[in-house]
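Let's practice the habit of predicting before peeking. Look at the sequence and jot down your guess about where helices and strands might fall. Then scroll down.
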Amino acid sequence: MLRQFSFGNRFVPNEDCDWIRSIVDVADKDSRKPHVREFISHPTRENYKAWMKGEKIRHLEPGEKPAAPVTVDKKMVHELARKRYERRSIGEIR
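Done guessing? Here is the structure:
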């Protein structure tokens, strides 16, 4: 006999998802601006939007290209990749 369980259509957003934590990793930890402090202490989507607005950062519109070439700091990219790997790893398996 097969039983099916349903818990309804509940959507629980994961505010502590990887991409938000990655942005917190590169946010200025020494900043005294209230929107930065709030975003670092409570990394939610709403605080992310407030942080972007406070830092005068916006997403590119569809089809829009960056005004100037973007230089990538290879050390920062490597560090972000390492932190992401550590968060996703399950530790040493024996």
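How did you do? The radius of gyration is 18 Å.
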